[in-house]
Write a structure and sequence with these properties.
The complex is a heterodimer of chains A (about 190) and B (about 300). Helices cover about 0% and strands about 50% of the residues of chain A. In chain B, strand 3 and strand 4 form a beta hairpin. Chain B is globular and about 50 Å long. The C terminus of chain B is likely disordered. The chains are: A mainly beta (about 190), B alpha+beta (about 300).
Chain lengths: ~190, ~300
C-alpha cells in the first residue's frame, strides 16, 4: 500500500497506526507562527473500536491500510468459525471468535451483516443496527402483566440475553438494538 | 480605527510590494512562488523585509496593513492569503511595544485585561520543567505524552513547539496574554539577551487572545553578521529537512549593514482578531472568499 503524508490525511482514509488498521476521523492543522506545523489527528482503531488522538509533524506519513467494508450474508457457525458469503461473487470468508466477538449474539443465519476486510481477511463483523430474534427461554408471563410492568431476562435463539417486558413468552420474535443490546419491540 | 490609532501616534503607513525577488528563508514558512514573465518571484509571507529596508533608509516608525501569503496553510486558523498588520517602532523595546499593542486591542473594542508572562514561567508552571535547562531527552519525553505517540523531534525547537501548542496554550487564561523571553532556539529575527537566571533568551514575544495566537514581535536584530549567520543556519535547516533552499535577501542584508536603527516590530493577524471580536471560531467565517479544503475537518 502507498504511504500517505499528513496533508493527504482526510476523514475516511484508512492507515496503519501502531500495527493496527485505523480510520482517520479528523485532521486539524496546528501551526505556531514561527514553528513546525503539526496535524492533530483523530483516528479510530478499526480492530478495537478505540478512538485515538495523535499528533504528527507536518510531512510525516503513515502506511495506507487495505480495508474494505462489504455487506455479506451470514451462513453458519461450524463450532469454531463463522462463515460469511459475498452476495455478488459467492466468495466465502471465515472469521474466528477474535473477529466476531460479541457480534455473535446478533448473527442469524441468512441475515446481511457488514464485514470489514483487512488485507482480504475479516477484521470486524458488524450486525445490522436492528435484528429480529426468537425468544427461546424466559419465565412464563403472569396474568395481569401490562406494558407498564417491569422486565425479565429472556434468552434468544443466538444465545443473547435481553431484558424484555413481562408479557412476552417463549417463541415470540422480538426486535433488538444490537448497539445497546436493548429490546425495542415485538417484531 | 487602526489607521487613526497610528495617525495619532505619528506612525507612517507604508504600502510595500506583495511580490518580491526573494522569499523568507525560515524553515517553517513556505512562500507562494509565482512565475512573472519567466522569472520566479515570491508572494511575500510578511512585509518585514521591505519595511526593514525602509527603516534602514530613515523612514522612522512605520506600519503596513495589507495582505500576506503562505503556501499550504489551510485550517481553522489558517488561510493562504490573509491580512497582516505589521508595525515597527523606533527606540521601543519589547515592553513598550507590548504595552502599545494592548492599547490598540483595547481601542478596537476588546474589553479585557492583559497579562505579561515569561515563556519559562508559564512553561514551568504547566509542565513542571524549565524550558531553557531541560535536556532534549526530557523534552522528547514530554512531547511524546503531548502527542500521544513516540515523538522523537530531533531538535529542541520542534519539541518545545509541540509542547507549547498542545499542552501550554490550552492552559492559558481567557484574555489577552503576552509571552516573552523565548528560548534561544526560537529566536527567529529577534535579538538575544541574558535573563536574570543567566539563560540566553530571545527578545521575542507572542500575543494570545483567548488562547489563539494573534501576533509575534521582536526587538529586531540589527547586527549584519548575526543576520547573515541566521540566514545561513536557516538554509542548512531547510536542506536537512529536504526543503528548497531559499536565497537570502541581499537587499535586506545590505540594509542591515547600512544600519537598521534600534527598533521593535510586531505583526498581527487581523482576520484572527476579527474572528475573536465577532465571536467566530473559524477564520473562514470572517473571510467571505476563503479557501476551503475538504481535507481538513474542523472540530
Amino acid at each position: 500500500m502507498a504511504n500517505y503524508s499528513t496533508n493527504e490525511f482526510r476523514s475516511g482514509l484508512k492507515v496503519i497506526m501502531d500495527g493496527d488498521p485505523c480510520s482517520i476521523l479528523e485532521n486539524e492543522l496546528v501551526k505556531p507562527g514561527k514553528g513546525q506545523a503539526f496535524s492533530r489527528v483523530r483516528l479510530r482503531n478499526l480492530k478495537t473500536g478505540r478512538v485515538w488522538d495523535k499528533t504528527f509533524k507536518s510531512g510525516e506519513s503513515l502506511e495506507g491500510a487495505d480495508v474494505a467494508e462489504t455487506d455479506m450474508q451470514y451462513l453458519y457457525n461450524d463450532g469454531e468459525h463463522w462463515h460469511f458469503m459475498e452476495p455478488d461473487t459467492f466468495e466465502q470468508h471465515q472469521a474466528d471468535k477474535n473477529v466476531v466477538g460479541d457480534s455473535a449474539f446478533w448473527l442469524r443465519e441468512q441475515d446481511t451483516v457488514m464485514v470489514t476486510l483487512h488485507n482480504g481477511a475479516p477484521l470486524v463483523v458488524t450486525p445490522a443496527n436492528h435484528v429480529e430474534l426468537e425468544i427461546t427461554d424466559t419465565d412464563p408471563g403472569l396474568k395481569g402483566d401490562t406494558a407498564q410492568g417491569g422486565t425479565k431476562p429472556a434468552t434468544l435463539s443466538t444465545g443473547a440475553t435481553v431484558k424484555v417486558p413481562l408479557f412476552l413468552n417463549i417463541g415470540e420474535i422480538i426486535k433488538v438494538d444490537t448497539r445497546t443490546g436493548e429490546y425495542i419491540s415485538r417484531a | 480605527m487602526i489607521r487613526n490609532f497610528f495617525k495619532d501616534r505619528k506612525v507612517l503607513e507604508v504600502d510595500v510590494p506583495l511580490i518580491g525577488q526573494t522569499g523568507v528563508t525560515d524553515l517553517h514558512v513556505d512562500c507562494i512562488e509565482i512565475d512573472m514573465a519567466g522569472e520566479r518571484k515570491y508572494l511575500q509571507s510578511s512585509p518585514e523585509y521591505f519595511m526593514k529596508r525602509l527603516l534602514a533608509s530613515g523612514s522612522g516608525s512605520i506600519y503596513s496593513l495589507g495582505k500576506a501569503f503562505r503556501a499550504e496553510e489551510i485550517g481553522r486558523y489558517h488561510q493562504p492569503e490573509f491580512t497582516l498588520l505589521e508595525w515597527y517602532r523606533l527606540g521601543f523595546d519589547e515592553h513598550q511595544l507590548m504595552s502599545e499593542f494592548a492599547t490598540l486591542i483595547k481601542n478596537l473594542g476588546l474589553d479585557c485585561k492583559h497579562q505579561i508572562l515569561k515563556y519559562a514561567d508559564i512553561f514551568e508552571q504547566v509542565i513542571g520543567l524549565n524550558p531553557h535547562k531541560a535536556t532534549l531527552v526530557e523534552l522528547q519525553k514530554i512531547a511524546s505524552i503531548a502527542s500521544n505517540r513516540d515523538f522523537f523531534g530531533d531538535n529542541r525547537s520542534d519539541c518545545l513547539n509541540l509542547i507549547f501548542s498542545f499542552s501550554v496554550e490550552p492552559n492559558l487564561p481567557d484574555s489577552l496574554i503576552f509571552i516573552h523571553d523565548y528560548p534561544e532556539c526560537q529566536s527567529a529575527l529577534a535579538r538575544l539577551k541574558e535573563d536574570s537566571q543567566g539563560n540566553v533568551v530571545a527578545r521575542r514575544f507572542e500575543v494570545y487572545l483567548n488562547r489563539v495566537e494573534l501576533a509575534n514581535g521582536y526587538v529586531e536584530l540589527n547586527d549584519p553578521d548575526e543576520q547573515r549567520g541566521r540566514f545561513a543556519a536557516d538554509a542548512s535547516l531547510r536542506e536537512t529537512a529536504g526543503k528548497k533552499i531559499m536565497p537570502a535577501d541581499d537587499n535586506l542584508l545590505d540594509a542591515v549593514e547600512f544600519g537598521l536603527p534600534f527598533c521593535s516590530g510586531v505583526a498581527m493577524g487581523v482576520d484572527r482578531l476579527l474572528m475573536q471580536l465577532l465571536g467566530m471560531d473559524q477564520i473562514s467565517q470572517v473571510m467571505p472568499f476563503a479557501c476551503i479544503s475538504d481535507d481538513i475537518s474542523h472540530e
